[in-house]
Design goal:
The chain is an alpha/beta fold. It folds into 2 domains: about 5-210, Rossmann fold; about 225-290, Orthogonal Bundle (Helicase, Ruva Protein, domain 3), CATH 1.10.8. It contains 12 helices and 9 strands. The strands form 2 sheets. Strands 4-3-2-5-6-9-7 form a 7-stranded mixed beta sheet, sandwiched between helices. Helix 6 (about 135-145) links the parallel strand 5 and strand 6 (about 150-155). Helix 6 (about 135-145) packs parallel to helix 8 (about 175-185) and helix 9 crosses helix 12 (about 280-290). The radius of gyration is 22 Å and the shape is elongated. It starts with 10 loop residues before the first helix and ends with a helix. The mean pLDDT is about 95. It binds S-adenosyl-L-homocysteine (SAH). S-adenosyl-L-homocysteine binds near residues 31, 32, 60, 81 and 134.
């Protein structure tokens, strides 16, 4: 590649670079590299990155999106699990002096330490085309534990993006919707068809942006209990809320106690968990917590 086409983002360059370094796609690492520049533009725009920002990129792959991030952000830190890609990244990112690449598993990183070391202790903006096999643990790990992360703009499976945004009573609504919406404001930035990747994934994708709240939009005295109630009520989707809570191993309430609380909240005793919103789960937790 000469300077004129230093951007990797097209199928020819992607194939050429993998050949040059004799590297193959690793399915086990969820590798689907982006080959469409319009999608990259959309991600960068949705992430709202400026020279003031430190970006954390999960899984840079061969550096396709990283090049754009380097051109727009102050600093970029990449965490890539696949050792075989490191020499490629060294080559494709050689022109940029504001990037660091760490070899490792994102799920095992101490984000506070990374922020101290690579971003003057300031929170990162996460931007990534995520490995789909670990989307939920990555996102929940970033949102919980008070990590220094101010926003998350990521490519995920379309279906997962829909779950994150879903409203009560819909099919996509579940524990993930409530968890994401407790910590952040989700916004669907783009739908992305399969042919924007190489190799093509067998599911449609979407870019979702999660703007982290400084304070959760609802207050509960016991966050842990609220999330246990949420988990319990969605574990048995087809059953009533009291049934879900009753059969949960981590919760210890009688049917009568639960029914009394539901009635006090003005709800039907046979209500299903999937119809409750975040405010109601918070109230349920506070009332049950007092028993
Ligand atoms: N950002 C690139 C590649 C996306 S594919 C692009 O858009 O073209 C997902 C990337 O995540 C791959 O590079 C894969 O090796 C990496 N990856 C998979 N599991 C990971 C983990 N646990 N920690 C860090 N990176 C991981």
């Amino acid at each position: 590649m000469d300077k004129a086409d230093k951007h990797l983002v097209n199928p020819q360059n992607t194939i050429e670079i993998l050949k040059k370094f004799d590297v193959h796609f690793q399915k086990k690492f969820g590798q689907n590299f982006l080959i469409d520049s319009h999608v990259l533009d959309k991600i960068i725009r949705a992430a709202d990155i400026s020279r003031e920002d430190g970006v954390l990129e999960v899984g840079p792959g061969i550096g396709t999106m990283t090049q754009y991030l380097c051109e727009n952000a102050g600093r970029v830190l990449c965490v890539e699990i696949d050792k075989a890609l490191l020499p490629i990244l060294e080559y494709t990112l050689a022109d940029y002096d504001n990037v660091n690449v760490i070899n490792g598993d994102i799920l095992k990183q101490d984000i506070w330490e990374l922020a101290r070391k690579y971003n003057d202790g300031k929170p990162f903006k996460v931007v990534a085309n995520l490995p789909y096999y670990i989307t939920t643990p990555i996102i929940m790990g970033f949102l919980e534990n008070d990590s220094p992360i101010s926003s998350i703009t990521v490519m995920v499976q379309k279906e997962v993006a829909e779950r994150m945004q879903a409203e009560p009573g819909t099919k996509a609504y579940g524990a993930l919707s409530l968890a994401v919406q407790y910590y952040s404001k989700p916004y669907l930035a783009a739908n992305v068809p399969m042919n924007c990747f190489m190799p093509r994934p067998n599911v449609a994708s979407a870019v979702i942006s999660l703007e982290r709240y400084d304070e959760p939009p609802v207050k509960t005295k016991d966050e842990k209990l609220m999330f246990e109630l949420i988990r319990a009520s969605f574990q048995v989707r087809r059953k009533t809320l009291w049934n879900g809570i009753k059969i949960s191993n981590s919760l210890n309430y009688t049917r009568e106690e639960i029914e009394k609380v539901l009635t006090d909240m003005g709800l039907d005793v046979n209500v299903r968990g999937e119809t409750l919103n975040l405010v109601q789960f918070a109230e349920l937790a506070d009332r049950l917590g007092e028993l």
